[in-house]
Design brief:
By secondary structure, the chain is an alpha/beta fold. It contains ten helices and 13 strands. It has helices at 21-34, 46-51, 84-96, 108-119, 144-165, 180-189, 203-215, 255-267, 287-306, 337-344, and strands at residues 8-13, 38-42, 54-57, 101-106, 124-128, 168-173, 193-195, 221-226, 239-244, 250-252, 271-275, 311-316, 319-324. The strands form three sheets. The protein has a seven-stranded mixed beta sheet, sandwiched between helices. A four-stranded parallel beta sheet has the order 7-8-6-11, sandwiched between helices. The protein has a two-stranded antiparallel sheet with strand order 9-10. Helix 1 runs parallel beside helix 9, helix 5 packs across helix 6 and helix 7 packs across helix 8 (255-267). The longest helix is centred in the middle third of the chain and has 22 residues, at 144-165. The radius of gyration is 22 Å and the shape is elongated.
Length: 348
């Protein structure tokens, strides 16, 4: 006897892509099938709910996607709350598509929309995703471990070039408002100076660190800088252009070049820049992220089954649990002071 379908779960992936999105989708579909829910994939983040773009997700359609980067559903940085007409279409399409429950997978912006909709009666659960690892309420968001692994490998490779040519190499990495990637990958890769938004530094301080290193015969250095780092003396973060996305975020980029030029001008050391950019978001997720995403996806469906709606799945220690939206994302999760102090031991 076939059991009656309990309802339809819609799932969307919003914001920047990152490794692990596909494992989450796969886990949601597998767990939902086991508990007798249908799953409808919503295309291109919140834009899919505005425009009614969906596709059914089945065990066959998610087979083999565990190691794949990106998201089979597509993504966007659409903010459906910015326009009343768009918000109205979200509600109309939820009803039209007969979506009983919603799983939103994304970072602060995507989950911020989910939190608002939850207060208005939408039965939604959130899964935290960001390589920046700055979402309050979880010990770690998925995508971060993979990004750190990619950056660490890049630093390892740049070490040999820096040493061979007696150069300073500045590595610009992602990190809009927090420096998690820069600090963790910098420590893992043996960086000689790490520059993050949480701790502005002057060019004099940076030059002194590199000068101390040169004085003891180490004629090359690796400087890791998060894109949101503010060099003391500059009024704002460096941006590529004047454009902003629908959530009001500027297009950051270029701080690495500024820091490199100032280092060379102040010290005379030959300096080069490597901007890792979107390579940090790409490729196959690490084993850690695959397992974390699988656990997150399963937990999200379990929350729906248990009637625990308006919550965000989270990692606490080694345990997967959940937290109400209103207790999460009230502030950014900044880099632990202990990590920063550990990194500083190895400067110079």
């Amino acid at each position: 006897m076939v059991e009656r379908v309990k309802g339809t779960i819609g799932i969307l992936t919003g914001g920047g892509d990152c490794p692990g999105l596909n494992p989450v989708i796969r886990a949601v579909v597998r767990r939902a099938d086991m508990l007798n829910y249908k799953v409808l994939g919503i295309k291109n983040g919140w834009l899919g709910l505005v425009e009614g773009l969906t596709e059914p997700l089945t065990l066959i359609s998610v087979s083999g996607i565990l190691p794949r980067g990106g998201t089979i559903l597509g993504t966007s940085r659409t903010n459906p709350l910015k326009d009343e007409a768009d918000k109205k279409m979200v509600y109309e399409n939820l009803k039209k598509l007969k979506i009983d429950y919603l799983i939103a997978v994304g970072g602060e912006d995507t989950l911020g929309v989910a939190r608002k909709l939850a207060t208005e009666g939408v039965k939604v659960v959130g899964i935290p995703k960001t390589i920046d690892n700055d979402i309050e309420g979880t010990d770690q968001a998925f995508g971060f471990d993979t990004a750190v692994s990619i950056v660490t490998e890049a630093i390892d490779r740049l070490h040999t070039t820096a040493e061979s040519h007696h150069r300073v190499i500045v590595v610009e990495v992602m990190g809009r408002q927090t420096g998690w990637i820069a600090v963790v990958a910098g420590i893992a890769g043996g960086a000689d100076c790490i520059l993050i938004p949480e701790q502005p530094m002057s060019i004099e301080q940076i030059s002194a660190i590199l000068g101390k290193r040169h004085a003891r015969g180490r004629l090359f250095s690796i400087v890791v800088v998060a894109e949101g780092f503010k060099l003391a003396g500059y009024d704002a973060a460096v941006t590529r252009d004047k454009q902003v996305d629908q959530f009001g975020h500027e297009h950051l980029g270029g701080i690495g070049e500024v820091v490199a030029q100032e280092i060379e001008r102040r010290t005379g050391y030959e300096t080069r820049v490597t901007v890792l950019g979107h390579v940090q978001r790409g490729g196959s997720p690490t084993a850690f992220d695959r397992v974390l995403c699988t656990r997150y996806g399963v937990k999200a469906v379990d929350l729906i089954e248990e009637g625990k709606l308006g919550e965000m799945v989270c990692l606490k220690g080694n345990r997967i649990t959940s937290i109400p939206f209103e207790q999460a994302m009230n502030k950014l999760r900044y880099v632990d002071r202990e990590l920063i102090e550990t990194a500083e031991i190895f400067y110079g």
